[in-house]
């Protein structure tokens, strides 16, 4: 095994200028991630300089077998924390050979919204709080939980320490450092209310980069849990009953919201979000109805309400924002399995481009 580890950690720069690029894309379910690697002649820092590639879409649920070729367009580059050196992770989106985005390519539509001059002028910032649950591999039960049983009730686990309360910290810290190494704007981590559940935060990041970073951070987390022999779940309610679900709270601000008088801009934006509540809920993740029940720090899925420092609201405004008269707000509705391309672009579209009827 030591020889295997030595080879896995081999430093290629001593003997070759070639690098390995791991091309990453979103699979047919809209939440699964796929990747494959290729050799490049030397270091690359600009995604536009990378070659397009292809894959068998019939094996990912994204194309029929009789016309299975799907084309990968490189969009963003990050340092590879697994191979290190000049090796890279490449976030891609997927197109037909004719250049048409395939149905599961949500990045393309998001990029169009984020390139709209009215959106560009407002420099939208996002901070996304990605919650997830670590599961024991063979039984799909949270780490730290007795198999077939339950731990003590919620209360002592949030931001906890100790072997009887905090489960999976090595994985969480490894992920934190790997994201920092990769160049992801990860801003923090914490243990969540349900034991075995954790959260990392990405941002503030501008426009579509927030979504690229969330997807690459998810990829890195999946790779680390693969090594650790556990399973990461983004299910919004992995354990039924009196246990918190998992969300992806999305913090948002625009240039106008961050400026003097921004609080009034925030309230107008929230009003528009309320008018399109149903459309947003439909796009905010699968199985969210199991999480948005009006309990466990959520608002009921059919109800839109906002408040200052209210964690039972659809939209929460922080006390500092209210006090300073400017700042940001938090959309607490997105599920942990949401597509950040859809969520971030939809928030921008509703608040900056959509006109009230």
TrEMBL record:
GO terms for molecular function: ATP binding; glutamine synthetase activity. It is an enzyme of class 6 (ligase). GO terms for cellular component: cytoplasm. Its main location: cytoplasm. Coiled coil: none annotated. Its EC number is 6.3.1.2. It catalyses: L-glutamate + NH4(+) + ATP = L-glutamine + ADP + phosphate + H(+). Gene3D superfamilies: Glutamine synthetase, N-terminal domain, Glutamine synthetase/guanido kinase, catalytic domain. It is found in: Cytoplasm. SUPFAM superfamilies: Glutamine synthetase, N-terminal domain, Glutamine synthetase/guanido kinase. One of its GO terms (biological process) is oxoacid metabolic process. Keywords: ATP-binding, Cytoplasm, Ligase, Nucleotide-binding. InterPro entries: Gln_synt_N (IPR008147), Gln_synt_N_sf (IPR036651), Gln_synth/guanido_kin_cat_dom (IPR014746), Gln_synth_cat_dom (IPR008146), Gln_synth_gly_rich_site (IPR027303), Gln_synth_N_conserv_site (IPR027302), Glutamine_Synthetase (IPR050292). Residues 106-357 form the GS catalytic domain. Residues 19-99 form the GS beta-grasp domain. The keyword Mitochondrion does not apply. Belongs to the glutamine synthetase family. This is Glutamine synthetase. It comes from Cardamine amara subsp. amara. The lineage of its organism: Eukaryota, Viridiplantae, Streptophyta, Embryophyta, Tracheophyta.
């Amino acid at each position: 095994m030591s020889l295997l580890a030595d080879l896995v950690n081999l430093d290629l720069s001593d003997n070759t200028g070639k690098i390995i690029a791991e091309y990453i894309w979103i699979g047919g379910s809209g939440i699964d991630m796929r990747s494959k690697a290729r050799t490049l002649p030397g270091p690359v820092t600009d995604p536009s300089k990378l070659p397009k590639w292809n894959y068998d879409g019939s094996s990912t649920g994204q194309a029929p077998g009789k016309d299975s070729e799907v084309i990968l367009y490189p969009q963003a580059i990050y340092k590879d924390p697994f191979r290190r050196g000049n090796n890279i992770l490449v976030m891609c989106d997927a197109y037909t050979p004719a250049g048409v985005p395939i149905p599961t390519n949500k990045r393309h539509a998001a990029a169009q919204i984020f390139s709209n001059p009215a959106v560009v002028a407002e420099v939208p910032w996002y901070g996304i709080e990605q919650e997830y649950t670590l599961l024991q591999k063979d039984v799909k039960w949270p780490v730290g939980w007795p198999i077939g049983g339950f731990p003590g009730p919620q209360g002592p686990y949030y931001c906890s320490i100790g072997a009887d309360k905090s489960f999976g910290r090595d994985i969480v810290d490894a992920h934190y450092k790997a994201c920092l190494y990769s160049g992801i704007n990860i801003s923090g981590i914490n243990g969540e209310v349900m034991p075995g559940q954790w959260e990392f935060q990405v941002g503030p990041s501008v426009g579509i980069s927030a979504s690229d970073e969330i997807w690459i951070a998810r990829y890195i987390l999946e790779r680390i849990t693969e090594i650790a022999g556990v399973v990461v779940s983004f299910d919004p309610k992995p354990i039924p009953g009196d246990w918190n679900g998992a969300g992806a709270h999305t913090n948002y601000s625009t240039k106008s919201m961050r400026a003097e008088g921004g609080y009034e801009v925030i309230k107008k934006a929230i009003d528009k979000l309320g008018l399109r509540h149903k459309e947003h809920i439909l796009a905010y993740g699968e199985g969210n109805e199991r999480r948005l029940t009006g309990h466990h720090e959520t608002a009921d899925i059919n109800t839109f309400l906002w408040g200052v420092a209210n964690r039972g609201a659809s939209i929460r405004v922080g006390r500092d924002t209210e006090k300073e008269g400017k700042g940001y707000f938090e959309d607490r509705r997105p599920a942990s399995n949401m597509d950040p391309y859809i969520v971030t672009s939809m928030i921008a579209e509703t608040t900056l481009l959509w006109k009230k009827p």
